[in-house]
Amino acid sequence: MANYRKILLATDFSEFSNETARRAIALANAFGAEMCALHVQEPMALLDTGYADILPFDLELTEQMLNAAKARLEKLAEKLNIPKERQWVEIGSPKAEIVRVAAEQGIDLIVIGTHGRHGLGVLLGSTAASVVNHAGCDVLTVRLSRDH
């Protein structure tokens, strides 16, 4: 059986993400592991560069979104007793950033929610499925539904 020392909660702040956090904390407690938390903010699509005078507005909005994400993560991390040095907000593709941060931080287990979509969602690939396929550590996917 694996002995997890560092567990990463990857959260999107969706209405169901509390269940993912509960699972991550239960595992951290069971293994005596350090909890870490990550939220990845997808970048805003910048407006046509022909409108250069609007560009600062986009950058300001991105900064505001980042600040809001940091505040939400801090609030969640406070409830879960995760110190600031183990909280990260990144900008980019959630699929890539979760895998990158986990590798850089020596994470043993990533805990991530999945909506378990079928059909077109499966063909396009979910964030959770991509993380499972590319992470260099174990990944626990928590099925998110209104039943939790």
TrEMBL record:
Residues 4-143 form the UspA domain. It is found in: Cytoplasm. GO terms for molecular function: ATP binding. Keywords: ATP-binding, Cytoplasm, Nucleotide-binding. CDD domains: USP-like (cd00293). One of its GO terms (cellular component) is cytoplasm. InterPro entries: Rossmann-like_a/b/a_fold (IPR014729), Universal_stress_UspA (IPR006015), UspA (IPR006016). Belongs to the universal stress protein A family. PANTHER family: STRESS RESPONSE PROTEIN NHAX, UNIVERSAL STRESS PROTEIN RV2623. Gene3D superfamilies: HUPs (3.40.50.620). This is Universal stress protein. Its main location: cytoplasm.
